[in-house]
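Problem 12. The chain below contains 224 residues. Write out its predicted structure in token notation.
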Amino acid sequence: MSMNKKLGYIVLSIAFVLFNVIAFVVPTDKTPVFWIAYSFTVIAFAAQIFVWIIAFSNAETLMSKFLGLPIIHVGIVYLIVQLASFSIFLSLPWIAIWIPIIVCAVILGISGICLTTTEVGKEEVVRVEAKVQRKVSTIKGLQVDVELIAEAQTDAAAKEALKTLADKLKYSDPMSNESLASIEEEISVKISALKIQPTIDIPVLVKQIEMLLLERNKKSKLLK
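Solution.
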């Protein structure tokens, strides 16, 4: 458990203790209205635990962790609104029972809807983030391969040609696309050939790869 999460649970526990102290010390009749409002407020406190768990479950990347914050924000707002309604009903112990039931149920329902839609939005953004990361990794992986091949070269001309190719890969559009898959596969095959065929004319093959890369980058621009 992270330190921030531990601190959050500690603050929540302190707030829950203070809530109970105030609820039972304030001299007011403990009518059914009080117990209804009290029960819904306890639910609101308990919900915070599940909100934190949901917010940071499978939060491995910085983006997914950041996207968990709006969910926590909704949970906190829900708790504050429920505490406010409890305060009102605490001072009105004589009103009809159906009023706190409806008010608290509406607060719970709206909060549940907001939490659900926020979580769905988070999952969608995380899914898109992962998809973009996969697309970006394709061209970056090819760049690393060429850099490693260049480091292993003893021929100055071949090493220089490979370094130039690595630079062109580095400054190419990192975003991939399904329609670019075939040309990227062809580039990948030719780069693999650089590794497994030591007698190949590297400068010539590099030129072929550069032409394919140029074609790939031009098509990439057209897709935007």
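Discussion. Residues 98-152 form the longest helix (55 residues). Students who got a different answer should revisit the alignment rule from Section 12.3.
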